[in-house]
Input
Amino acid sequence: MSVRVRFAPSPTGPLHMGGVRTALYNYLFARKHGGQFLLRIEDTDQARFVPGAEEYIREALDWCGLTPDESPWVGGPDGPYRQSDRKALYRQYADQLIAADKAYYAFDTSEELDAMRERLKAAGVAAPAYNAVTREHMKNSLTLSADEVKERLARGDEHVIRLKVPRHAEVRFEDLIRGWVVVHSANIDDKVLFKSDGMPTYHLANIVDDHLMRITHVIRGEEWLPSAPLHVLLYEAFGWERPQFAHLPLILKPDGNGKLSKRDGDRLGFPVFPLNWTDPTSGEQSSGYRERGYYPEAFVNMLALLGWNPGTDQEIMTLAEMVQFFDLERVHKGGARFDPEKTKWFNQQYLRMHPDAELGAQLQAKLKTKGIDTTVERATQAALLLKERATFVDDMLEGTYLFTTGSPLKDNAEAEAELKKRWKAEAAPAIEAYITTLAGMADLTPVALESTFNEVLGAQGLKIGQVMPLYRLFVAGRMQGPGMFDVSALLGRDEVITRLKAGLDHCRAWA
Ligand code: GLU
Output
């Protein structure tokens, strides 16, 4: 049987990075086994529907390169893939369970349900539930006469359909990650399968669809583990073969205390969403990895290792390699602590791995947004120098002095403060001698520049530390950055001489 897995998000807001990881593991599992990766939109809960959320899910998965084989957007043999478009087909399955005495109609009003809970609480029941015991005292097709039920249905009385959970049964299934799960049916309540608004609940729609879509493995977040025994009962009630379950570990906050939730937003100093999101009701903005400048490959690579490892020390992996190594057996049971610093590290690694010309093109595009026009060749040469200190392409913008002409000291308060601290009159003759030698040099290589500089300093009896900061400030206008001989070679002789002279004049004006 061919593997078919699905990612089944509810469009109740932006997709959390945990959701992206669930999609990723489903994708890897499907590819590994030559199967299909489906996407189903679970939007039966209309009260929680958020406009734009479905488009967000689509865009986020596309950005990550996790495009589903079957989805509401591309269709497929088992569509429609949006539950609201499948609305008409659920009722018959609820009816089927009623006919088999596996489910029943319940007519209780919300006041009656509240009263039941109050009564049970007063009697000392900690978690009152509509279950095998309490249903005996409620208004449902198990307690009312057949005639009354018929009459109420004919009259159109509001009702729901509940699963008739067996009173004494052990529900067992083997989770591919967590091993055997055994729950006594006394701990499962008679969940509503079909609501009075004519819509199925998540539980019914989810099982019916997984069955109709021929899903072989349900790979989803740990928060659904408590629902799994109920789902097992539903498969048994229908007499359907059930898929295998695999519940993925939670993603924890960096301090390990609790689940990293949607509500964490940017509160902890990093995004929890793949893309930017603006809440359509409150207008509240949350940032995304894409807009923060992360490469999707880095984001996906980081997510892959959040709860799984390939069994080796290899951390940097292409999607194809992840497919090759992926195995549910190596998914951890315990929560996976999210590490924002490590996430940056991944981006830095991917940045460095980019072919030079691509990095150059990315830098060229960024420079353009800052009003600096340059060729891709020059941007590439600069990127080669700047990438060592960069985590994001944006970080390379600190090297704009490589693309401008003239002294970088104009309106540069930071450089000014440094110069005031570091200026030494004794350095001036050395810089002048260096300028003179430079002017006569045909070939400006970093090596030639460095030996010239050292010679000049040696002749003047000065140490590098006495002159280099000035050289750096005069030419680059900042203390940090790539080696000055590399920078100078790239800028070219005339530009370096212009900046050094301007620097000397600048300092002499106040020294
Ligand atoms: N609609 C559920 C969700 O939002 C799907 C859970 C499942 O995969 O069964 O996560």
User: Anything to note?
Assistant: Residues 151 and 157 are 9 Å apart (CA to CA).
